[in-house]
Design brief:
It holds the Pfam family Glutaredoxin. The protein is of the alpha+beta class. Helix content is 55%, strand content 11%. It folds into 2 domains: 2-48; 51-143, 3-Layer(aba) Sandwich (Glutaredoxin).
């Protein structure tokens, strides 16, 4: 669980160190701006940037029922973050599975990819796509 937050905590801590250093140098505005930028980055790298994760089994059942894709991801993955932000509000219409939080999700990804945990991996109607084209996924979500 802690590993999911490591990158975000490191980024926020670094922001705090920068703020203190800038305050000591007599530059409170610069320090405040830099701190806010690093805090926004920390939040975007945290699990909070993604829709609530479901377990792999629950996501697969829900996908079979509603036809929406299952997206396997992990915190700190820049490709997952790019995919998430490119989807915007449509991201809520997919079933997200955090492979660091759900061992069954990690096992599902390893089974799909042949032993690796490469994310993002999207499963839609039984078809798995690793690092999907964002425009393609947006279209698939809109049509589901």
């Amino acid at each position: 669980m802690a590993r999911r937050w490591t990158l975000a905590v490191v980024m926020a801590t670094f922001g705090l160190v920068v703020l203190v250093a800038q305050l000591a140098a007599g530059l409170p505005v610069v320090g405040g701006v830099e701190f806010l930028i690093l805090l926004v980055l920390a939040l975007s790298l945290s699990p909070w940037a993604f829709p609530r994760s479901a377990g792999a089994a629950m996501a697969q059942r829900a996908s079979a029922a509603d036809g929406r894709p299952v997206v396997y991801w992990r915190p700190g993955c820049r490709y997952c973050l790019q995919l998430r932000f490119s989807l915007g509000r449509l991201a809520r219409r997919a079933h997200w599975v955090d492979i660091w939080l759900d061992p069954a999700g990690a096992a599902a990804v390893r089974a799909i990819i042949g032993g690796n945990e490469t994310v993002p991996t999207v499963v839609l109607s039984g078809r798995a796509v690793v690092n999907p084209d964002r425009a393609w996924l947006r279209e698939q979500i809109r049509s589901s």
